[in-house]
Amino acid sequence: MLDLLLCRIWVPVRFLLEVDLITLLILPSLFHSGTSHCFCTSSMASFSAYQGSCPYIKSILLLDSEGKRVAVKYYSDDWPTLNAKLTFEKSVFTKTQKTNARTEAEITMFENNIIVYKFIQDLHFFVTGGDNENELILATVLQGFYDAVGLLLRGNVDKREALENLDLILLCLDEIVDGGMILETDANVIAGKVASHSVDSSAPLSEQTISQALATAREHLTRSLLK
Amino acid sequence: MAQPLIKKDDDRDDEADYSPFLGIEKGAVLQEARVFNDPQLDPRRCSQVITKSLYLLNQGETFTKVEATEVFFAVTKLFQSRDLGLRRMVYLMIKELSPSADEVIIVTSSLMKDMNSKTDMYRANAIRVLCRITDGTLLTQIERYLKQAIVDKNPVVASAALVSGIHLLQTNPEIVKRWSNEVQEAVQSRAALVQFHALALLHQIRQNDRLAVSKLVTSLTKGTVRSPLAQCLLIRYTSQVMRESNPNTATGERPFFDYLESCLRHKAEMVIFEAARAITELSDVHTRELTPAITVLQLFLSSSKPVLRFAAVRTLNKVAMTHPMAVTNCNIDMESLISDQNRSIATLAITTLLKTGNESSVDRLMKQITNFMSDIADEFKIVVVEAIRSLCLKFPLKYRSLMNFLSNILREEGGFEYKKAIVDSIVILIRDIPDAKESGLFHLCEFIEDCEFTYLSTQILHFLGNEGPKTSDPSKYIRYIYNRVILENATVRASAVSTLAKFGALVDSLKPRIYVLLRRCLFDCDDEVRDRATLYLNMLVGDGSVVETGKDVKDFLFGSLNIPLINLETSLKNYEPSEEAFNIDSVPKEVKSQPLAEKKAPGKKQSALGAPPTAPTSSSDAYERILSAIPEFSTFGHLFKSSAPVELTEAETEYAVNVVKHIYDGHVVFQYNCTNTIPEQLLEDVMVVVDATEAEDFSETASKPLKSLPYDSPGQTFVAFEKPEGAILGKFSNVLKFNVKEVDPSTGEAEEDSVEDEYQLEDLEVVAADYVLRVGVSNFRNAWEGMGPDCERVDEYGLGVRESLAEAVSAVINILGMQPCEGTEVVPNNSRSHTCLLSGVFIGNVKVLVRLSFGIDGPKQVAMKLAVRSEDQAVSDAIHEIVSSG
Question: ipTM more than 0.90?
Answer without folding.
Answer: no
